[in-house]
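Researcher: Go.
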Amino acid sequence: MTYSGSEKRKHPRISGRFIVSYRMLQENDKIDISQTRNISLGGMLITTNRQFDPGAQLVLEIRLPFDPHPIMLIGRVIKSKEITHNVIYDTRLQFIAVDDKHKGIIDEMIGYYMKRSNWHQPSESAPHRPSKSAPTRGGFKTYDIG
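Model: Structure:
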């Protein structure tokens, strides 16, 4: 399925699987571990084991290859879509709290992977397939690192 609506993203995103732990902002003891499906300077798509309401705030700790220390940030749920009944959800997040140092690390990582070959347009529902060029979506290029 091809997306035909208007592009709402403000930043290019890359497909990639990075380890991320997450919890609701109000829950200190219910930490889960998952992985990203894609990431941009403005947010990310992660796989979760439960559905979250839009607007819910998650505390996230993500490990990226450009920093030996985990990046801590807060994200707001945009949408949480059930993939496998009561088991797997694709959860789209918008970053709402990330410091300048960590923004720089995320930006550097995205820039690095944008320069690599075998880029493709990430899809939230389709399997990752490399292509020979980086198509644009709403004027922004997206790239696969997986």
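Model: Helices lie at 100-114.
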